[in-house]
Automatic annotation (TrEMBL):
Organism from which the protein derives: Strongylocentrotus pallidus (Pale sea urchin)
Cellular component annotations (GO), alphabetically ordered: catenin complex
Gene3D superfamilies, per database record: Cadherins
One Pfam match: Cadherin
PANTHER family for this protein: CADHERIN 23, CADHERIN-23
Keyword Signal attached: yes
Location(s) in or outside the cell: Membrane
GO BP term (any one): cell migration
Keywords: Calcium, Membrane, Repeat, Signal, Transmembrane, Transmembrane helix
Coiled-coil intervals: none
Any GO MF annotation of the entry: calcium ion binding
Protein name: Dachs
Classification via InterPro entries: Cadherin (IPR039808), Cadherin-like_dom (IPR002126), Cadherin-like_sf (IPR015919), Cadherin_CS (IPR020894)
Length: 233
């Protein structure tokens, strides 16, 4: 006598997901719009069963600020909240991939996202105004004072250059474009002018747009005892 025996072989979840890359790198500008696509991670599972090979993605760690999200189905990472390079310039996310098998198997990969700078900060002077004094007999190139401004951006966007942009008698003085040092340029004469005011501009070197700030500089020219006393006739 023969008996028909039907044996169903069920798939065993014996393969874990495997990321195509262990470490992913991406860069994104700090002014991108929300929903901007940053990078897509990809994991594979060698199991043949649809359940065992179905992969779900999630952010395991590194997203405490909630700046990014990942699509559970396709591994697309997008921007969820506004980025600010001056606050955080690099994010390191640990991405997990888990299959739907029993028991579930998982894998992780690292995603390093660098935030690129845009020129969104103007130079800021250290003081609200600058004042200096110089004797009228000072020779050309004599140092008077230094103005200084800082810019929170990086690279060319954060490099500051100085120039004198306006002011009566401002041609009597020069400013170093890099250091901001103000020096004597022309011949001074207190009998002609005792006080000189001029405007100094600090501008960054942004490639796409330049930002600038201005400050008032006041120079008092002090007297030099150049005339001897005389008796009027």
């Amino acid at each position: 006598e023969f008996v028909t025996v039907r044996i169903e072989i069920t798939a065993f979840n014996n393969h874990s997901p495997h990321f195509v890359e262990d470490i992913y790198s991406a860069s994104v500008s700090e002014n991108v719009s929300l929903g901007h696509h940053v990078i897509t991670v990809v994991a594979e599972d060698m199991d043949l069963s649809p359940e065992n090979s179905k992969i779900n993605y999630f952010i395991e760690s590194g997203n405490d600020q909630g700046k990014f999200k990942i699509d559970a189905n396709d591994g697309r990472i997008t921007v969820l909240e506004r980025l600010d390079r001056e606050a955080t310039d690099t994010y390191t996310l640990i991405i997990g991939a888990v299959d739907n098998g029993e028991p579930m198997n998982n894998a992780t990969a690292e995603v390093v996202i660098e935030v690129e700078d845009i020129n969104d900060h103007s130079p800021i002077f250290d003081h609200v105004q600058y004042e200096g004094r110089i004797a009228e007999n000072a020779t050309a190139s004599t140092y008077i004072l230094t103005v200084h401004a800082t810019d929170r951006d990086i690279g060319y966007n954060g490099e500051v250059e100085y120039s004198i942009i306006s002011g009566t008698y401002s041609d009597l003085f020069a400013i170093d474009v890099v250091s901001g040092a103000v020096t004597v340029r022309g011949e001074l004469d207190r009998e002609e002018v005792e006080r000189v005011e001029f405007t100094v501009q600090a501008s960054d070197r942004g490639m796409e747009n330049q930002l600038a700030s201005v400050i008032l500089v006041t120079i008092t020219i002090t007297d030099f005892n150049e005339f001897p006393p005389y008796f009027p006739q």
